[in-house]
């Protein structure tokens, strides 16, 4: 039985969430909280298996509550929110930086056409997230990260023109760290698939734009793949690197139960760029991306999996390592260092495909 704490300042929404979750025999709602202070106290006293967290609350908001809980009584936290204005996306993803696992949409109103489906989806995610083993978080101030060690490149390595990155649970803060650390002169295109609930990818892009030193945009079908640009796959579409150095978006069947799929992206990059590509598989549940990364390695590309120690969920990288898809297993700092090493200096023309 999953023991759930619901944090929500609206009494109406709170009651609707209690009813929705209580209808599932595998979940027991052990408490509710209407503000951050009450959430922190309830997390300490009730010791739930998982918490759903509201963001905008009176007094201590969801960000501060998540920080306090994850630094003292760590427990899986999932953000539940409605549609947000892009200008509020900073707050949304700061909560993920503080340790929340995922952002999900609140259910449709009871009695509406989409209510049952939205509740079923939410319950499924809550059950999955409740199984994740989280660790205590610390929030040091002003500490410089350790200097990464030199990484030997294979003798056959080519200069990289396209970097494909895939991530799922725990990925947004890592993607922010990577894009904020790459130099403005970074000479490769960056293609990103981040598994995220529908409706939040646009806010995710807006949040990345605030810290990235490279331009970040939501990918559109037919866009030219240009060096020094970051393209994020939109909701509900596979993103591929076409042979004519253009973005291809498709509604092909889901792969590994997902669309967009990381493996789909990696395979297309392998086919179009081969040895001139790098693939990076970050934290996430499941196995999406592993077979695609192996395909890229077989085509001569540089393939990287995030290491266990820095992963929120070691599922996707672990599967890549298991099938020998990863040439390197690295920390985020080492990934940044390696990408800066293998990427060419910028040119003005579009990237040629192999």
Task: Summarize this structure as a short list of keywords or feature phrases.
354 residues; alpha/beta; Rossmann fold; 2 domains; 5-stranded parallel sheet; 11 helices; 14 strands; globular; disordered C terminus
> Radius of gyration from the CA trace?
20 Å
Assign the CATH topology of the largest domain. Answer: Rossmann fold
Strand content: 15-25%
Low-pLDDT ranges: 346-352
Query: Major sheet: size, sense and barrel closure?
Result: 7 strands, parallel
Mean pLDDT: 90
Strand arrangement across the biggest beta sheet: 8-9-7-6-12-13-14
SSE pattern, N- to C-terminal = EHEHEHEHEHEHEHEEEEHEHEHEH
Number of strands: 14
Q: Which CATH class of the largest domain?
A: Alpha Beta
Distance between the termini: 53 Å
- Into how many domains do the coordinates divide? 2
Count of helices? 11
Structural class: alpha/beta
CATH architecture of the largest domain: 3-Layer(aba) Sandwich
By CATH, the superfamily of the largest domain comes out as Methylesterase CheB, C-terminal domain
Helix content: 25-40%
What gross morphology would you assign? globular
Give the helix/strand layout:
Elements: E1 2-7, H1 11-22, E2 27-33, H2 36-46, E3 50-53, H3 62-72, E4 77-81, H4 89-97, E5 102-105, H5 115-130, E6 162-167, H6 171-181, E7 189-194, H7 201-209, E8 216-218, E9 230-232, E10 238-241, E11 247-250, H8 262-273, E12 277-281, H9 290-298, E13 302-306, H10 315-322, E14 328-330, H11 332-342
Parallel strand pairs: 1-2, 1-3, 3-4, 4-5, 6-7, 6-12, 7-9, 8-9, 12-13, 13-14
Antiparallel strand pairs: 10-11
